[in-house]
């Protein structure tokens, strides 16, 4: 490869060849092609999968129908003073935050 002679002839004709730019563009093109292949494979996998919405609805129905065994069943607040910590202060003057 006579890189020096081809570069000098290109420079004489008024054209500057940037070999690093060509390499950079080629590498970027390869990266984009690889990403396109990856996305196509992912789309194929998604097309083969079952509909998730039906499975999710069935799962939510089964979870919602059973009470959580770790949480106690309470209809209202057991201690009314406990709710004060979760409400806004009644007077803005008293709020020290």
UniProtKB/TrEMBL annotation:
GO terms, biological process: G protein-coupled receptor signaling pathway
Pfam families xref list: G-gamma (PF00631)
Superkingdom per UniProt: Eukaryota
Subcellular location: Cell membrane
Protein name per UniProt: G protein gamma domain-containing protein
InterPro entries, per the entry: G-protein_gamma-like_dom, GG1/2
Any one of the GO CC terms: plasma membrane
Residues forming coiled coils: 22-49
Domain G protein gamma residue range list: 26-97
Record keywords: Cell membrane, Coiled coil, Membrane, Transducer
């Amino acid at each position: 490869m006579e890189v020096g002679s081809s570069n000098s002839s290109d420079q004489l004709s008024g054209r500057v060849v940037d070999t690093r730019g060509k390499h950079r563009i080629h590498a970027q093109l390869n990266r984009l092609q690889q990403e396109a292949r990856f996305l196509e494979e992912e789309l194929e996998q998604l097309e083969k999968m079952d509909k998730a919405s039906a499975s999710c609805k069935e799962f939510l129905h089964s979870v919602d129908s059973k009470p959580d065994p770790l949480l106690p069943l309470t209809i209202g607040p057991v201690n009314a003073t406990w709710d004060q910590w979760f409400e806004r202060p009644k007077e803005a003057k008293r709020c020290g935050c």
